[in-house]
Design a protein that fits this description.
Helix 5 crosses helix 6 and helix 6 crosses helix 8. Strands 5-4-6-3-10-9 form a 6-stranded mixed sheet. A 4-stranded parallel sheet has the order 1-8-2-7, sandwiched between helices. The protein is of the alpha/beta class and about 250 residues long. It has helices at about 30-40, 50-55, 90-95, 105-110, 125-135, 155-170, 175-180, 180-195, 200-205, 205-215, 215-225, and strands at about 1-5, 20-25, 45, 65-70, 75, 95-100, 115-120, 140-145, 235, 240-245.
Length: about 250
């Protein structure tokens, strides 16, 4: 297995597709996706374009759909939800499909949707992602961060490092055997420096600061937890993620 970390979807090789691709948007799209599926949501369907989201979601019964939209950290007017995982309780999402569009994370999922296997990862479901990789042993794995509007983000890189670090431990393999690019090494270094204070790291992150200005401290606290959800979001068809049944 060779693991590659890309900080943004724009950094991924344009003419290659890995066997397994993992989208990461800790603050907050992939944290929300994992939370929705853990809470009994039927599926999460992602869109980069709000008009397309409205068009497709109109074909679903109103009582079987939820629309979630976020731009610049704030909720899109007219949508039931923004991008806070804390709003995705079983009472709200159970049995429903979440149609979601966010500033960064949905672009990442669309970039990697042609990979053989597409997963959504956050810190909260890291263990489920690592368990799948150890079990299936895909030959090439991309972990693709979402960043913020095309630039590097601390929280996505630390999550990539958390996955890579745990993978090395579970496989009892040295980092240099697994790492396919230098970004893997730097991501692991970031994680091991901050693993005991991930919430503190998110306070340093530019998007963490942006969310704090929007009074989203509780979101940061939730998203900085590791291994609290036993759920693996997996793409079933392009743009549609469901809970993988092991």
């Amino acid at each position: 297995m060779k693991l590659f970390v890309y900080h943004t979807p724009e950094e991924t090789p344009s003419h290659e597709v890995p066997e397994c691709a993992i989208a990461v948007d800790v603050l907050r799209a992939t944290s929300t996706i994992a939370t929705v599926l853990a809470a009994g949501g039927e599926a999460v369907q992602v869109f980069s374009d709000l008009d397309k989201l409205m068009e497709v979601s109109e074909q679903w019964q109103p009582n079987k759909r939820l629309r979630a939209g976020e731009r610049g950290g704030g909720k899109v007017p007219g949508f039931e939800l923004g991008n806070s995982p804390l709003d995705c309780t079983p009472e709200i999402v159970e049995g429903k499909r979440l149609f979601i569009s966010t500033t960064n994370g949905t672009r990442t999922l669309q970039r990697i949707q042609d990979a053989k296997t597409v997963l959504a990862a956050a810190l909260i479901n890291r263990a489920s992602v690592v368990r799948y990789l150890v079990d299936k042993q895909p030959e090439t794995v991309w972990i693709v961060g979402s960043g913020w509007e095309g630039s590097y983000s601390l929280e996505d890189t630390v999550c990539a490092g958390a996955i890579a670090h745990s993978l090395c431990q579970e496989m009892n393999a040295p980092m240099e055997k697994i790492a396919g690019n230098d970004e893997v090494v730097s991501a692991i270094a970031l994680y091991t420096s901050w693993e005991d204070n991930l919430l503190g790291l998110m306070h340093h992150a530019s998007h963490g600061q942006r969310l704090l200005r929007l009074n989203c401290l509780e979101d940061l606290k939730y998203c900085s937890q590791t291994d609290v959800l036993d759920v693996l979001p997996m793409q079933q068809e392009p743009g549609v993620l469901k809970r993988h049944a092991e």
